[in-house]
Amino acid sequence: MSPPFSDARLVRRIQSARDAAWDRSAWPATVPAVAHVLDAGLELGPGVTFLVGENGTGKSTLVEAVAAAYGLGPEGGTVHSAHSTFRSESALADLLTLVQRPGVPRWGFFLRAETMHGYYTFQHESGGPDFHSMSHGESFLAVIESYMGRTGFYCLDEPEAALSFNSTLALMGVLGELADAGSQVLCATHSPVLASLPGAVIYETSDDGIRRAEWEELDLVINWRSYLNAPERYLRHLFS
């Protein structure tokens, strides 16, 4: 007799909290992808799940809210991080609940590109590493190496912002190792390179909401491929 199916995912699903009430006419519920998650929920895959899409379609808002709902510092940090400089996050985290695997010790980290320098200061003043002494890209990779070395749930908001092509490939290697070790990653990205990670689940956010997609059919990939094949077709409209 075969053993019963075991779902190894740490976080299985994002959905609206029981009895959560939100104003559909107010941000962020007016963002179609956010409204979709509040109405229908979102299943996370094992390993790495990417959110891709244009600016303003809700990727970062969702990742930030999921991080906070898990207990990660909304400006970056580990579980129950106390770091805060300027509250800019939405109240979406209060409307969400995460369906999690019971009985697993919680560990995680939230890397939020736009607030990482504030986190570096907090860490250094608390006796931690001096990430400010590194280049922008080196500091991102050092943070990942320092805090993402054990099984946990990791949220990344546009981590490629500081990374070169080769460093992005190095990050892909780290994400692959995390997935193999049983960790989960939820990552918002604009990088077609990062989103090509083998085995990743990809959701595309847009004005129509959020949908499961394959890498080859992403607008992100199609647009970059079209531009790199013939940049002059785009540039002539800008500089005519």
Automatic annotation (TrEMBL):
AAA+ ATPase domain boundaries: 45-228
Gene3D superfamilies: P-loop containing nucleotide triphosphate hydrolases (3.40.50.300)
Location(s), subcellular: Cell membrane
GO molecular function: ATP binding; ATP hydrolysis activity
Any Pfam family: AAA_21
Nucleotide-binding in keyword set: yes
Chief place where the protein resides: membrane
Gene Ontology terms describing biological process: double-strand break repair; iron ion transport
Record protein name field: Vitamin B12 import ATP-binding protein BtuD
Organism: Arthrobacter saudimassiliensis
